[in-house]
Amino acid sequence: MYNYEWDRLRTWLGQYGAIDENITKPEEITRIDLSGNSLKTLPSNFALLSHLSILDIRRNSFEVLPEVLGSLALRFLNASGNKLSDVSILSKCQQIRVLDLSANALKEIQFSFLPELRSINLSSNFLKDIGAFLPSLANAVRVNLNNNLIENIPTSIGSLTALEEIEMIDNRLKTIDEAFFKLKVTNVNLSSNRLVSLHLHTLESLEVLTLDENPFKSVTFSKNFAPLLKEFSCDSCSLEEFLLPPSASLEVLCYSSNSIVEVPKEISCYTQLQELDIDANKITDLPDTLANIATLQTLYAKGNPLNPHAKKVIAILDPEICDLNMKSGITIETAKEEDLKEMAELLGVLFAIESDFTIDFEKQYAGLKQLLSYEGSNLLVAKHENHVVGMLTMQRLISSAEGSFIGQLEDLVVKEEYRKMGVGSRLINKMRALAQEYGYKRIQLAADINNENALQFYTRRGLKRTHLSIYHYLIP
Fold first, then answer.
1. 153 in helix, strand or coil?
2. Long-range pairs for 100-103 at CB < 8 Å and ≥24 separation?
3. CB of 62 closer than 8 Å to CB of 34
4. Which residues contact residue 65 at a Cβ distance below 8 angstroms, ignoring those fewer than 6 apart?
5. pLDDT below 50 — which residues of the chain?
6. Terminus of the chain with fewer CB atoms < 10 Å: N or C?
7. In what order do the strands lie in the sheet with 331-334?
8. Which domains does the chain have, with CATH numbers?
9. Pairing between strand 331-334 and 377-384?
10. What is the per-residue pLDDT across 203-238, written as a single tens digit (0 to 9) for each?
């Protein structure tokens, strides 16, 4: 009976290309990809896969998670992009660590406490009241609740004692319980909600806070708020005042698209500030103290009626780091197939500098074509008048040191006539934002040790030189 059921299961898996032909017994199978097959259920003999730990059933037609999953020792389950309204069987999946239930039809969560759960994605569902199920996520480190119908962060949020990162973008948040401010979170994103008034305090481990696109009338800080805060963003929040978070560790500050009139002279207290975004406000002047921030690498100031004194401050600071000096009309876009030939030619400019590589258009074009189709890659281009003038690529890697994904940056190059206009900075900033969106723990790159300009460029943009040297071996 066992062999008969195994033969049936192997045949079933084979029709979806989910099994290697060399597999001879179910115990050899540890991961299966059944994504994109319009499945509504799984066969009962799926239970034979006693060693299965990773299951991908994305983009199918499941309305209920199959009962058979409760008999498996799953550690990773991706069930995004289905029609799920019932996931109660997960109560039996006590070993699961990573769970993706995004883009389904969930109105409530029915599973009980999952002690091993560390990362959960519940974005793009219909969740409204989250108070009852939050304790079931008590050991979660990363929680994504983006694009739901949530109106408040309840008291039960305090049960998430291991939480480090939480995203609740594009909900209907109006209130936040005090229990939230006692969490040990490091990264919080509450953008695109309905927060009108917010008093920020405690959150002693917080490093990144994003509050973009909330209709604030009042935002205040306690002196004890987030002493480790490195990044703070209130883009498009109707602010009239330039707020000064109390953290001395601040590296990135964004107040783009508000109604701010004045940058206070106290901004010089941010001795580690690397990026300041005050685009699209009503600022006419800049304080002389801004020029004292030696660490500042990028200043976005377009869309303000800056007077001559403000431009003089920028000139003293370093005109090359300000977007006012960019050639107008340059856009940063995701690369398309029609861009690949120009990108391959641009790589020739890069490889003429980097002695480890040789210029070969056909090889470079073929490599870029593979990168474009690879799921774990991002290709960005800077364009002017519909021509590629700069580029940057990133590939997703798994780091055993970080225990998670990281991004490997490569191929940063800008045409000579477009350099010193902030194009490279914009490419890196955009890629860094993507890496943060994906939850990467680190971005890294390799640079030619003889390219002093590139080394200084990366250092000024917050990339730190490591003690590692790169070795490679060409396979004959």
1. strand
2. 100/58, 101/125, 102/144
3. no
4. 79, 84, 86, 87, 88, 89, 90
5. none
6. C
7. 331-334, 377-384, 387-399, 404-414, 443-445
8. 1-120 (3.80.10.10), 331-460 (3.40.630.30)
9. antiparallel
10. 999 999 999 999 999 999 999 999 999 999 999 999
